[in-house]
Prior knowledge:
Blueprint: H1 11-27, H2 33-40, E1 46-52, H3 61-71, E2 80-86, H4 96-104, E3 112-116, E4 122-126, H5 130-137, H6 140-150, E5 156-161, H7 165-183, E6 190-195, H8 202-208, E7 222-227, E8 231-232, E9 236-237, H9 243-254, E10 268-269, H10 276-279
Parallel strand pairs: 1-2, 5-6
Antiparallel strand pairs: 1-3, 3-4, 5-7, 7-8, 7-9, 8-10
Amino acid sequence: MARPPSAVVSIALLSLSLALGHLAPLSACDIPVYEYALLNWSRQDYTLCYLHDGAEAPADAEANKLLRKVAAGKEGHANLRFVSLKATQDPEGLSPEDRYVLKTTSELSRPRHLLLSPKGRTVFSGRMTVADVRDLLASAQTASLAGMLLRGTHGVLVVMTDRNEAQNAAALKAAQNAVHAAEGTGVSVGLLEVSRQDPKERWLVRQLLQVETDLANLDGPMVFGAYGRCHLTEAYLGKGITATNLQGLVAFMKGPCTCDIKAANLGVDLVTNYDWESSLPATGTPLNLTEPGGYVTFGE
């Protein structure tokens, strides 16, 4: 449900504060959040389902061929899983997520592609072409974000602008002030601006709008924190976009890690076509690629 304008508050900061206040005494450590996430959090997969009634439609063959190669790791390094689901398929043997998708999509016309976030939220529903698949994996802004994080920034403020220029300017100013305040304390924070109306970044925008359930129904700029391997925090919006609130977000990303933040189900990963393990700096810290992500099962 859309949040009423009079009730807009810094939902993300409140959620983080409550969760961290509960988790910190359990497993706090001295490793900063941004560093622990980069070295230890394996990415969660997006699921791309091909829903059909029988044989694969010829028009979808090339896109599906590419998707199978990507999912198998034969082309690129994307956190993307591909599954083909027939309407009359026996659910036995399917994963719980795929059984849920099969059950809840019976009324949708087929064939179609369905892109689901790691939390089971619908990022896209329709037909995908080879060009669509390549655009999904080749977001220039996502590549810029990953580059900032790999260069050792303590986090990035991602500002998604909208149509209202005055609101965009205010959001960007708040983010810039937070970045400058961090620099004054020796903390390196990146700033990335993404336009909601940029057709070249439509796949990134779709992902941003599914970080929380109601964002796609809201207008105006939104600000997300990004750290680790392009893991996004929940959004700041409306009156919650202030330099003070964003400084609090920066403090969280730079602060001591609880090691359980991801399992608290805050935020979501982006699709990134990166070989993170090979790209990470040689810190001598072993990667824990089996740490659970803690995402909810589809349908919960």
